[in-house]
């Protein structure tokens, strides 16, 4: 019999005293049942709240994990830690690749010297030396690429550390490469043009976003990537990798910028001497295209040290005529 029953027949035949005692007992039982109901409801409420909090924390944890994971994902089209630019006619386009995933290592570009010169350049956009080298030689190097005689692989690095202008500028290149890779070269040139008159501390992120816009790339996702330092972790990691080892080169590590590698050989001449660089490129090309014979002679190489006269390589620092 439920203590909540109100059937008056249960009192039939009972004395007044017994009826009062029974009523008290039934009231006590009702109070106990109500207390149990309230405890159950309280437990249910606590369980629901805990489940909700756990779900909320799980969602927050996933969001944090996704954000952290994204911060360690490299930019698309820079699987080698650099972006490869090739040309045909007058246009220069970027080679598209996957992004480096968290925990993975970059994949070095193949050093296939059978078709074109392979130019690899490590660039720190906060370096005055980079400004000198690029102002002197950048147009010539890019002319080789646009004519189809060379490929250029740009590696933005930050030798001044993760909190430097160099890091923010390298992040800018990464943001552009990730979203609109064919716009990397114009942005690269715009960053180079700014080196000579950089203010103390370099350009702010907002100024870098404006520089990209002024260079012809108006993309909100690129601007937010720049102002949010989206690839700052990748910049730090890729710079450290370059300082630990340079693939496909006769130099072991990156010690200073700029570093230009031509078909696996590092240029060590004067940064402001275009003739020295042209001679180096020509001699390097000749060695690769016409390796010495096993007897120590090289019957196919021109005696004057220039590249073959068949139009396959630049000999004077400019793209050869068609």
Automatic annotation (TrEMBL):
The chain crosses the membrane at residues 43-65. Residues 289-322 have a biased composition (Low complexity). It comes from the Bacteria. Residues 287-322 are annotated as: Disordered. This is DsbA family protein. Residues 132-281 form the Thioredoxin-like fold domain. Keywords: Membrane, Transmembrane, Transmembrane helix.
């Amino acid at each position: 019999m439920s203590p909540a029953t109100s059937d008056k027949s249960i009192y039939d035949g009972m004395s007044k005293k017994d009826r009062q005692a029974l009523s008290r007992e039934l009231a006590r039982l009702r109070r106990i049942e109500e207390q149990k109901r309230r405890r159950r409801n309280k437990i249910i409420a606590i369980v629901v709240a805990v489940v909700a909090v756990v779900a909320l924390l799980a969602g927050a944890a996933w969001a944090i994990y996704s954000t952290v994971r994204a911060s360690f994902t490299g930019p698309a089209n820079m699987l080698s830690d650099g972006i490869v630019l090739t040309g045909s006619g007058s246009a220069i386009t970027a080679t598209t690749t996957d992004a480096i995933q968290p925990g993975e290592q970059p994949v070095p570009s193949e050093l296939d010297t059978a078709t074109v010169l392979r130019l690899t350049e490590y660039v720190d956009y906060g370096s005055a030396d980079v400004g000198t080298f690029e102002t002197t030689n950048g147009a010539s190097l890019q002319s080789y690429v646009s004519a189809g005689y060379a490929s250029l692989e740009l590696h933005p690095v930050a030798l001044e550390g993760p909190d430097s202008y160099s890091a923010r500028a390298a992040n800018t290149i990464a943001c552009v490469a990730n979203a609109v890779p064919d716009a990397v070269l114009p942005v690269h040139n715009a960053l180079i043009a700014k080196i000579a008159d950089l203010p103390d501390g370099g350009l702010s992120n907002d100024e870098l976003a404006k520089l990209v816009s002024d260079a012809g790339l108006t993309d909100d996702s690129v601007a937010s990537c720049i102002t949010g330092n989206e690839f700052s972790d990748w910049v730090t990691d890729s710079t450290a990798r370059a300082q630990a080892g340079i693939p496909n080169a006769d130099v072991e590590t990156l010690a200073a910028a700029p570093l230009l590698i031509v078909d696996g050989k590092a240029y060590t001449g004067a940064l402001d001497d275009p003739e020295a660089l042209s001679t180096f490129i020509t001699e390097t090309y000749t060695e690769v295209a016409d390796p010495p014979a096993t007897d120590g002679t090289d019957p196919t190489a021109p005696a004057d040290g220039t590249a073959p006269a068949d139009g396959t390589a630049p000999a004077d620092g400019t793209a050869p005529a068609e």
